[in-house]
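Narrative of activities, Objective 1.

The group set out to show that a structural description can be obtained from nothing but a protein's sequence at a throughput compatible with the screening campaign. Below is one input-output pair from the validation batch, recorded exactly as produced.
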Amino acid sequence: MRVESENRGSIAEKSYGFAVKVVSLYKYLNEVKKEFILSKQFLRSGTSIGANVREAKQAQSKPDFLSKMNIALKEANETLYWIDLLYDTDYISIDKKQSYHKECNELVSLLSAIVKTTKINLGNKYAK
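Output recorded for this entry:
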């Protein structure tokens, strides 16, 4: 299935679509730029977002769901760091940086809203 993630609706679909793009950029960084360390970190965090969202769908409890979504949010924020670093070290263009940043920021916003709503629904025990 090769559909751009911005054409998809749910957080699961968007995070999966983003992961597909992350893998594509990872391949480019390895094959063309011969960059193996930063790209591996970017691959790990960028694909982990969707993996944790998918795990959350099968959570054993609401607190477990919240934990998985929090991890996905942390991975999305880490991915933003790697995008910035790849740009600032001249491995990706400004266009790629902006494109990946936009999509990842959208995931951060969605995940933040999910985490906040879940905390509210769980009560003060999990609210920060």
